[in-house]
Amino acid sequence: MKAIQYSEHGPADVMHYIELPDPVAGPGQILVKLEAASVTPFDWKLRAGHLQNHFTLPMPSVPGRDGGGTVISVGDGVTEFVVGDRVAVMAGVFAQGGYAEMIAVDEKHAVKIPDSLSTIDAVALTNAGLSAWIAVRTAEVKSGDKVLVHSGSGAVGGLLVQLCHHLGAHVTATCRSTNRDYVLGLGADRVVAYDEEYFSDILTGQDIVFELMGGEVHDKSYKVLKKGGHMVWLVADPIRDRGEEFGVNVTRAMITDDKSALQGMMDLAGTGLLKPQVARTMPLSEAAEAHRLMEKGAISRGRLMLTM
Ligand SMILES: NC(=O)c1ccc[n+]([C@@H]2O[C@H](COP(=O)([O-])OP(=O)(O)OC[C@H]3O[C@@H](n4cnc5c(N)ncnc54)[C@H](OP(=O)(O)O)[C@@H]3O)[C@@H](O)[C@H]2O)c1
């Protein structure tokens, strides 16, 4: 099969489009012929070597935390899937990733794609969807909550806006001004454009902040929470925990390959309650260029997808 692989950390050029042996479905696994995979910020940060304090990546490595396609064989003991099923899969950090024409995964790391969703749309909901679902579950968002979602135009932020709106929260989101109408269209009640005004100068009394940027954005977000409010953060730039100082709870959303969370996203999207956001598609062979675009912040309004 064709796949993207790198053998050392470094710039996007370390990734090569090469021929690898086809994987085989082991016991309890399904073999999937992939149609698409997401390009995530985690992929390029891992490749660049920025996460070496957290993970020692076995080399060579095929990147990608998810994918979607059709089951072409099943291993012994598989009960949930048959050949021909369309599935979305979660790929482990230390296993082969989704930047490939095929992948073998444990059946507990796959869900069926609803008939109403294209495979590409389902994959746009896979890694980003897991992150958004688990963050919302961590925050225990309920109807009437005042919620601030940072980077509402990003892949995860856009899904957070949609999920919180669906749950009946009052959603304010940050993004650049050219994405204001897009984010309002996802269900935000209010947008604060970070290139026009500073959110912490104008917002107060929020019950929950979803913080996806780290650094200064994290630091300034405490001020907008009410006492007893909840800051739920995802890993980005380093943060300074100021929860005690401001009398708020601070929780990192621990994003794991949680099948029930992924199933929840698929069910909502399958019934049309959630719209997958695909920013752009590029062929698998152009993965290095896809990483360059992600690194310079040129991708907005959903996921950048690689297609096989
Ligand atoms: N395991 C984890 O903890 C975990 C999991 C998933 C994601 N994350 C992190 O969450 C972040 C978002 O991920 P993603 O996949 O959604 O990325 P993404 O699709 O690349 O979105 C990033 C968004 O950030 C927005 N942005 C840039 N500067 C901003 C600012 N000063 N204020 C508000 N928004 C700003 C951009 O908005 P505009 O386009 O409008 O400029 C862009 O759409 C990344 O840092 C990622 O590493 C962590």
Automatic annotation (TrEMBL):
<dbReference type="InterPro" id="IPR052585">
    <property type="entry name" value="Lipid_raft_assoc_Zn_ADH"/>
</dbReference>
<dbReference type="InterPro" id="IPR036291">
    <property type="entry name" value="NAD(P)-bd_dom_sf"/>
</dbReference>
<dbReference type="GO" id="GO:0016491">
    <property type="term" value="F:oxidoreductase activity"/>
</dbReference>
<protein>
    <submittedName>
        <fullName>Alcohol dehydrogenase, zinc-dependent</fullName>
    </submittedName>
</protein>
<dbReference type="InterPro" id="IPR020843">
    <property type="entry name" value="ER"/>
</dbReference>
<dbReference type="Pfam" id="PF08240">
    <property type="entry name" value="ADH_N"/>
</dbReference>
<dbReference type="Pfam" id="PF13602">
    <property type="entry name" value="ADH_zinc_N_2"/>
</dbReference>
<dbReference type="InterPro" id="IPR013154">
    <property type="entry name" value="ADH-like_N"/>
</dbReference>
<dbReference type="InterPro" id="IPR011032">
    <property type="entry name" value="GroES-like_sf"/>
</dbReference>
<feature type="domain" description="Enoyl reductase (ER)">
    <location>
        <begin position="10"/>
        <end position="306"/>
    </location>
</feature>
